[in-house]
Every structure is written in structure tokens, then in C-alpha cells.
């Protein structure tokens, strides 16, 4: 993905045509997935006291996690 800086373009119309502000919105939208995964798999277990109490990986352990909590 290439971010088109408004300084690189000849005019505001060209910047908008090349995707200008929408590229920033897309980058923020995709970064929320990374933030969510980090929160669920790293931050949440630390707040629970240990990584073993956090969200487990796998189908059966996910259902066990849902039943226990």
C-alpha cells in the first residue's frame, strides 16, 4: 500500500482521485484487527493472573473456556 501524501500530488483533486484519506481509513481499519488480537491473547491473560487462564487456542479448549467463564 502506498500512501499518497498531499505534497506529492499536483492538486487536491489528484490526491482525492488517488485515494487520499481513504487509504488512511483502510490502514486504521486493518490495524484494529491486530490490536484486538493482541488484547485477547496477551493483555487479557495477564489481567487474569496467568497465560493459562487466557483465551485458549483450538476448538475444544475454546468451548471449555466458554463454559467455564
Structure description:
GO terms for molecular function: chlorophyll binding; metal ion binding; oxidoreductase activity. One of its GO terms (biological process) is photosynthetic electron transport in photosystem II. This protein has three helices and no strands. It has one domain. It has helices at residues 12-17, 20-48, 59-68. With 69 residues, it is mainly alpha-helical.
Average pLDDT level? 73
Specify Rg, calculated over alpha carbons: 20 Å
Main structural class: mainly alpha
Helix fraction? 55-70%
Order of helices and strands: HHH
State the end-to-end distance.
40 Å
Count of separate DSSP helical elements: 3
Which parts are unreliable, with pLDDT below 50 for 5 consecutive residues or more?
none
Mass-distribution shape = rod-shaped
According to DSSP, the number of beta strands is 0
Please, how many domains? 1
Name the beta content range: under 5%
Biggest sheet record: none
How would you summarize what this structure contains?
The protein has 69 residues and is mostly helical. It is 65% helix and 0% strand. Keywords: Acetylation, Chlorophyll, Chloroplast, Chromophore, Electron transport, Iron, Magnesium, Membrane, Metal-binding, Oxidoreductase, Phosphoprotein, Photosynthesis, Photosystem II, Plastid, Thylakoid, Transmembrane, Transmembrane helix, Transport.
